From TrEMBL:
Residues 278-428 form the JmjC domain. Transmembrane segments: none annotated. Residues 1-23 are annotated as: Disordered. It comes from the Eukaryota. Belongs to the JARID1 histone demethylase family. InterPro entries: Cupin_8, JmjC_dom. This is JmjC domain-containing protein.
Amino acid sequence: MKTLTTTRRVYGNESPDDTAGTMWRPTDFDDFHDGGAYPEVFAVQFPSEIGWQKKEINSEINDTISCPPSLPVDMETLMKDSTETMLRVKGNRNRTDAHESYKAFVRAFERDAEAKEIETFGSLCEAKSIEIIDNDTVDAKMFENEFVTCENGVGKPCVVRNIFKDRFHGVDLLDLFPEEMLTVNDKAPARRTDKGAMRQNTLLVTSKRYKEYMDDYEKCNEDDDDAKPAPFYNNGWRIFSTHPEKVNPYFANMHPAFTRAADETETILRETFKFVVKSSSAPHMQSHVDAMTANVSRSLNKAFIGPAGCITRLHYDAQNAHGFLAQTKGRKLFVLFHPAADVGATNCCSSADEQTEMNQSLIDPLRHIPEKARKHLYACVVEENEAIFIPHKWWHYAVSLDSSHTVMRNFFHSKTNVEGLVTMVMRSVANNQTN
Ligand SMILES: O=C(O)CCC(=O)C(=O)O
């Protein structure tokens, strides 16, 4: 495990003045080589190469994508002709996955003149709708009571209209950072169960190339819909951590005023760090509390960008976080299950000696919904300038219906899911102390 301070690289903020958070933070595969334990990285941190493609790619694309992130030039070659790349990748990819369900679903929807609403169509025909509220009229206390703490803390999802004001219009994160290297995946989120032919393919490309790929992929949809492979997805882009100074002016208000009563993340973090510093006889760390708080908080904001057909499979958020996901471009279909649904019975578990992925489900909502789960099923299409609030432990699945840009924040609240955040920080500190 990494330690808080190493001689090679410094983790977090070295100087008290470094409130901008410019110090090294883990971002690449190699940084997680030993399993990680970074409190500000809001992801399941399992040992390297589980669930990710790096060296052992056994497909035709092996030669071109098996280089580590330090050799992006090969990735550039790979993406030189992105249409050709897609065709090459096509023959090697498993075609019976969630993407096939999505294609069948959308094709059937297009054929069925009676089907008016995609969210109540096909396997979703018994889905309940999700309440819609308006950013202009909702108040912070009301949001906290009616959606976050209601039902004894189980919460209730909602869709919020008019989420962005003037600030976001025209902002394309890919255009803002054309040379930024992105890790894009054809299966999301990464799962240990994705092995052999099912495993996730990962590419490293610049934003600029990825944008071209998105355009080509959409064109390819029109020409050759049947044969098209699952698209690569820029899922969980940590641009809010890596370039806060450039992104925040646009998205400072990405979770609007009404969530502020419910989003107590920074208060919880600050108090936890203060406690840790006090009890670890490391008083010099006191001056780092604000910067650590800001860094971790920022890391809970991410972007998800990709062409139509990009899927995030059914899961609930790690550390029981609440999620707030806003569409800055395009539409996304969300399918949710109340935590009472027996979705967990289908957890991903690769083998008896490996840990079950408790927050991942094998259910593919566009293919089949088990009878018992149907009464807990919700669905909606979130459009541009709208957001969805997904309470902690609510299972969710998402698929882009158009070329789509989503900005997301995970957050914590003292009366519902504080434990998840405190446990994450404390566990990370304990790991660092014992290593
Ligand atoms: O926008 C998406 O693809 C869904 C992301 C998601 O489910 C999550 O961040 O928990």
